[in-house]
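User: tokens in, sequence out, please.
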């Protein structure tokens, strides 16, 4: 099972996204608080994080397709930490579609995002909760700097803490919506990893399963008619991540290469016909 999980981690886009999330957290003015987990080899005896050293090393690690060129031991150490040590029990893998439970939610048609599945080892406790209370689906948007900790630690209730950014109008809990556009409005874009093929900036929304425990609060927005969920952190789980590229990729993407090749073939074909006439 552990071997199968390791194999799933070997995908270019998933690795790219993990690097971008970590890079965004390291750039945050709250980095010492939100950059969790953090590489153990950059934490001193007093528990202080050397974020400058981590940032410098992150810029050195290559794309997955260039791993064979790694020569420095500390670069390999960072790659191993990002891909394996920091999260042995889950993998992030690109997929084609939204999970079926979220496909009928508001404004999901033609969403234009890259979709990633979060694949985990089986969790009997979550399965038991879902069976006991049933579950629904919702979205949660957050700034790019938060995604490193969200993926590794799950969504956390920050209401009433110094990390709270958007208020707590409906009380304590994680806020979600059944309207993708509402959640996307909270997903502020951020710069990605230096070598990212996703784009120079990105924004993310989580596709979440919500266990409908009696402690979960719901309220309908009178204007949009959308549903708002306020959920204790134990009853919500990120199952997919939607990623939008805000700008052009750092290097030529496969899509752009196909477009350019098509254009060149079209030009060559027209030129060939003109010579014949």
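Assistant: Sequence out:
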């Amino acid at each position: 099972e552990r071997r199968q999980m390791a194999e799933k981690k070997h995908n270019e886009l998933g690795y790219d996204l993990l690097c971008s999330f970590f890079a965004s957290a390291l750039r945050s003015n709250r980095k010492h608080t939100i950059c969790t987990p953090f590489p153990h080899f950059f934490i001193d005896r007093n528990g202080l994080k050397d974020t400058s050293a981590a940032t410098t090393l992150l810029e050195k690690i290559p794309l997955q397709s260039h791993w064979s060129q790694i020569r420095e031991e500390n670069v390999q150490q960072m790659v191993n930490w990002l891909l394996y040590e920091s999260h042995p029990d889950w993998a992030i893998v690109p997929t084609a579609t939204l999970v079926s439970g979220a496909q009928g939610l508001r404004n999901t048609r033609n969403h234009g995002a890259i979709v990633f599945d979060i694949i985990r080892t089986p969790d009997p406790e979550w399965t038991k909760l879902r069976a006991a209370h049933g579950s629904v689906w919702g979205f949660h948007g957050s700034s790019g700097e938060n995604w490193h900790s969200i993926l590794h630690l799950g969504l956390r209730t920050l209401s009433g803490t110094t990390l709270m950014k958007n208020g707590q109008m409906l009380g304590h809990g994680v806020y979600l919506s059944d309207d993708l556009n509402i959640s996307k409005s909270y997903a502020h874009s951020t710069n990605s990893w230096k070598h990212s093929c996703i784009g120079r900036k990105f924004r993310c929304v989580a596709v979440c399963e919500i266990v409908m425990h009696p402690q979960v609060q719901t309220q309908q927005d009178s204007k949009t008619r959308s549903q708002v969920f306020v959920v204790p952190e134990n009853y919500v789980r990120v199952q997919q991540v939607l990623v939008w590229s805000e700008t052009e990729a750092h290097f030529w993407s496969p899509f752009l290469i196909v477009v350019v090749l098509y254009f060149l073939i079209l030009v060559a074909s027209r030129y060939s016909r003109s010579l014949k006439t």
